[in-house]
Amino acid sequence: MQLKEIIQYLEFLAPLSSQESYDNSGLITGNVNMPITQALICLDSTEEVVDEAIENGCNLIIAHHPIVFQGLKSLTGKTYVERVVLKCIKNDIALYAIHTNLDNYRFGVNDEIGRRLGLENMQILSPKAGVLNKITVFVPLENREQVAQAMFNAGAGSIGQYNACSFFGEGTGTFTPVAGANPYIGTPGTAEQVKENRLEVLVSTHQLAAVVSAMNESHPYEEVAYDIVALRNSNAFEGTGMIGKLPVPMPTEAFLNLVKNAFNCGVIRHTKLVKTTIETVAFCGGSGSFLLKEAIRSKADVYITGDFKYHEFFDAEDKLIIADIGHFESEQYTINLLSAILTKKFPNFALRLTTINTNPINYF
Q1: Which residue of 68, 100, 148, 301 has the lowest C-beta tally within 10 Å?
Q2: CATH architecture of the domain with range 240-324
């Protein structure tokens, strides 16, 4: 298949618009029209991983971490970043990164962590605000269902665990077609009054263009009357970190052993064990110290993430346990997640998981 088919599906689930401002997710090398024979999935696209792709005939590498975070001013091969980019270009390998947009996806990196810990009732720890819109469109009574369904099919009307959500009410629309118009109802020069429905739906910003297009295509009117209002509401299905509960509370040390075994941790750096049992667990893959206040506010017993600095451990203030399991350790199963996502959509597509451990940190 062509590379653009894979990219379109990944970005439908985890749109580039939902990545953080510092990030560089997306296509780094390659052409969207190139045919893909086999893909290699990895956490970090190191030189060794590129060699693995070449050896196995993979012309696409899907990485969680972008190899290029900042602009490159040269491509001479003096750094490992430049060497990776050069080697991909020379060997016609497309390199694609899906990073914080996958972190912010409800069923992304953090959902995989929670699933492996056996947590229930999982929710986004810090939902994003300002990523929802309300579309209001006026449509003849007999056409409401077809317009609504077209908008739902394009991604509108999802609220948490519910789909096809809308509000509609009946009213009267007035208009006068001018000369040259081709009205669905009425004739040019004659004032009209028509029974219409006011149809309202919610839509995420990244799906807005597709929903408006579907609305216009399915609407019978030559000129469609609608408005779009940006909302400040938080989207419970988009954001950073997650929180969930164990089916049964566990003794703290037993829980930490569970975490250590589940994520093959060389060590868990943690604060004082101020909780004797663990029930509510907050977590964030990668570097998650910025969510500590959210974890405390949510009454979590423990907060699992990576990359806590020395002084940041004091910020727990004995209100919960910080469990730093390591950056790589917390995100290592992202490759399994991506494999499952792509296999479900493209069951005959050839995928490989890297066999290279790209963790730059070792334990003695």
Answers
A1: 68
A2: 3-Layer(aba) Sandwich (3.40)
